[in-house]
Structures are given as structure tokens and as C-alpha cells.
């Protein structure tokens, strides 16, 4: 919520704004047993929502699941290089 690339809003200010939105008190009461809006409840609500998101399988997911003809020769070579050389270099660079 506070991240510049996300909502770029301090949690305390966002909490105050959300608490003033008509209808949210009822929703918070239904979800949490109390209509009081808190940053902890907001975090739980967002986390619960995010757990419901399911992205479709990517080309990579399908390839890993056994659909080996989905990747071109260059893509397979790129994956091989990433898994062997690039990943190793990245790991070593971190130390």
C-alpha cells in the first residue's frame, strides 16, 4: 500500500480514508465482527483477496508440465543457459 509503484499511501492515511467510505463499516463488520476499520483488518482483507487470485498457466508452466513442443529450440537453449550459467553467475554475484 505504501509502495510508490502501488498505492503510494501511508497506511494510517489510507485507513482513515477507507474508514470514511460509505458502506465499508458494514462490510468490515460482516468480515471481522466489528465495523471498526484498522490497518490490521485492511491487511487481512487484502491478503484474503490476493489468495483468491489464480493466474492462467503460462507457456513456461505448460512446458514444465510436459508439453515439450511448446518451446522453440532457442527457447529451450535459453532456459538451459538460465538454469546452468546465468543462475550460477547470479548466485555467485550475490556473495
Describe this structure in words.
This protein has 95 residues and is an all-alpha fold. Helix content is 63%, strand content 0%. The chain contains 5 helices and no strands. The chain has helices at residues 11-19, 24-32, 39-52, 59-64, 73-94. The longest helix is centred in the C-terminal third of the chain and has 22 residues, at 73-94. The model has no long low-confidence stretch (mean pLDDT 89).
Record keyword descriptors for this entry.
5 helices, mainly alpha, 95 residues
Layout of strands and helices, then pairs:
Elements: H1 11-19, H2 24-32, H3 39-52, H4 59-64, H5 73-94
Short description:
The protein has 95 residues and is an all-alpha fold. The protein is built from five helices and no strands. The longest helix is centred in the C-terminal third of the chain and has 22 residues, at 73-94.
- Fraction of residues in H or I helices: 55-70%
Shape: elongated
Count of individual beta strands: 0
Largest sheet: none
Portion of residues in beta strands equals under 5%
Amino acid at each position: 500500500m505504501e509502495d510508490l509503484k502501488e498505492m503510494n499511501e501511508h497506511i494510517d492515511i489510507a485507513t482513515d480514508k477507507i474508514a470514511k467510505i460509505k458502506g465499508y463499516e458494514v462490510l468490515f463488520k460482516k468480515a471481522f465482527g466489528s465495523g471498526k476499520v484498522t490497518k490490521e483488518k485492511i491487511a487481512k482483507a487484502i491478503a484474503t483477496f490476493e489468495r483468491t487470485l489464480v493466474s492462467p498457466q503460462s507457456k513456461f508452466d505448460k512446458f514444465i508440465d510436459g508439453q515439450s513442443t511448446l518451446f522453440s529450440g532457442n527457447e529451450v537453449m535459453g532456459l538451459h543457459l538460465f538454469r546452468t550459467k546465468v543462475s550460477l553467475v547470479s548466485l555467485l554475484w550475490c556473495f
